[in-house]
Amino acid sequence: MNEESYIAATKEAMSKAYVPYSNYPVGALIVTDNGNTYSGCNVENASYPLGNCAEASAIASMVIGGEKKIKTIYVMTKNDEGGIPCGGCRQRIREFSDSNTQIMMCSPDGVQQRINLSELLPNSFGPEHL
Ligand code: THU
Fold first, then answer.
1. What pLDDT is attached to residue 35?
2. How many whole angstroms from 45 Cα to the centroid of ligand 1?
3. Residue 91 sits in a domain of what CATH number?
């Protein structure tokens, strides 16, 4: 798959978002080091704090798929600046990333910002600190 098809798959994930409360759909697509892809969308709840972020959904799907290494993660919203992972999701992504992991913040038009893990979450805490 090329970047264009990753963007299309991320957009498809965003279209599935269940966001009756925020009306802020987010799609995420993980490409693993094996080249497999796992998608997720945000899923909200009438009990607001129970909502799930798109990145968390994609990570759960990856783990259920038996994989644990994020090579690239695409995060899309409808904003021109692209999908910006929240603080909690930065830590979630960090758990399954290394210094080569790329975070692609996308609008429906494509990648708007491309950063690596240390830019996403500088000086971060992770499994090797335990
Ligand atoms: N959201 C995500 O899915 N990922 C993020 O990184 C930022 C926030 C969702 C949560 C909620 O459903 C909506 O966006 C508004 O906060």
1. 96
2. 12
3. 3.40.140.10
Distance between Cα 54 and ligand 1 center (Å): 7
pLDDT 10s digits, 102-123? 999 999 999 999 999 999 999 9
Please report the sign of the dihedral spanned by the C-alpha atoms of residue 86, residue 88, residue 89, residue 93. positive
126 in a structural domain: no
Question: Residue 30, by phi and psi: left (phi above 0), alpha (psi -120 to 50) or beta?
Answer: beta
Tens digit of each residue's pLDDT (9 = 90 or more) over 43-70: 999 999 999 999 999 999 999 999 999 9
Give this prediction's pTM. 0.97
Residue 81 known to be catalytic: no
Domain of 71? 3-119
By most ligand atoms within 8 Å of CB, the mutation choice from 86, 103, 120 for ligand 1 is: 86
